[in-house]
Design a protein that fits this description.
Length: 121
């Protein structure tokens, strides 16, 4: 298994946009969330599950950040994406990190991510 570490890079796209092509045959695993001084952070691994197809650059990983209040309502905090400038060969994995900047990350101690996907423009 090969791992690459990537950080956030502005993509200029709209997070959650329907005007993209989702990449099939990928799986996400080992997803961990944490809070830093100014960011909500999600880390994980994406694997190209295809036996034959390589994902060619550029491609993107994105997700939405959410929190639940005390009444059980869910609120969208925002979304983030990263641009991947490497090919991902069949059966190869890649480590990724998405960071959402916020002034008061301690207000979102129990944040979650959802709508995680890989896509191409």
């Amino acid at each position: 298994m090969v791992f690459f570490f990537l950080s956030c890079e502005e993509t200029g796209g709209i997070t959650g946009s329907e005007n993209v092509s989702e990449i099939s045959n990928v799986s996400f695993s080992n997803i961990v969330t944490s809070i830093t001084e100014n960011n909500l952070v999600a880390n994980g691994i994406i694997k190209n599950d295809s036996q034959t197809l390589t994902i060619s650059p550029p491609w993107y990983i994105e997700c939405q950040f959410y929190y639940n209040d005390n009444s059980g309502d869910t609120y969208l905090i925002g979304g983030e994406s990263i641009k991947i400038n490497n090919s991902l060969s069949p059966n190869v994995s890649l480590e990724w990190t998405l960071e959402h900047q916020t002034n008061n990350p301690e207000n979102y101690n129990n944040f979650t991510i959802n709508d995680l996907r890989a896509y191409k423009h």
